[in-house]
Design goal:
four-stranded antiparallel sheet; 9 strands; three-stranded antiparallel sheet; SH3 type barrels; 164 residues; flat; alpha+beta
């Protein structure tokens, strides 16, 4: 008899929840709201309702509360600077500086195809790359792969990078 009472209580609880959901959904359609009409000829005066703003002058900052530093303030008025006409610089040709990349070598993974296409892990200027032998990216091309180093070319320059 204990299970029967529990089932009846749970059934009433679920029915109550669903009743609440249906009531809240349907109540917005059941009750009509009365429309409020405003007279057209009535003019509101905004000047009566508006308050004047309270203005005040702030003192200059004498102490920084975060750094706990004090600043000396001058009571003298600042004088506007005198403007001097400057010569307009002539345009010089822009020379593009190309910097040699910072390359770090982390190792390689042999492939199953006779070891000719190793996958090399390098970091070029902070960007991690996975390159195969002979592949070129960002001007770097992998020429040869060794256990402790890799031979790379950048433009016309060829260099070695040792493993970290």
């Amino acid at each position: 008899m204990g299970k029967k009472k529990l089932n009846i209580i749970l059934l009433l609880f679920v029915a109550g929840l669903w009743g609440t959901v249906v009531y809240r959904y349907a109540s917005q359609y059941l009750y009509k709201q009365e429309a409020v009409f405003v007279e057209k000829d009535r003019v509101f005066s905004l000047n009566k309702n508006m308050q004047k703003k309270d203005t005040f002058e702030m003192d200059p900052i004498k102490r920084d509360p975060f750094l706990n530093k004090s600043y000396a303030t001058d009571n003298k008025k600042t004088v506007s600077p005198i403007r001097i006409a400057k010569k307009v610089p002539t345009r010089e040709p822009i020379v593009k500086n190309t910097y040699f990349p910072t390359v770090e070598y982390y190792g390689y993974i042999k492939s199953n195809n006779d070891g000719k296409k190793e996958l090399v892990m390098i970091k070029n200027n902070g960007v991690l790359m996975k390159l195969k032998m002979g592949e070129e990216r960002d001007g770097l091309k992998i020429l040869k792969v060794f256990k402790d180093s890799v031979q790379l070319s950048y433009g016309k320059k060829v260099f070695f990078v040792k493993k970290n």
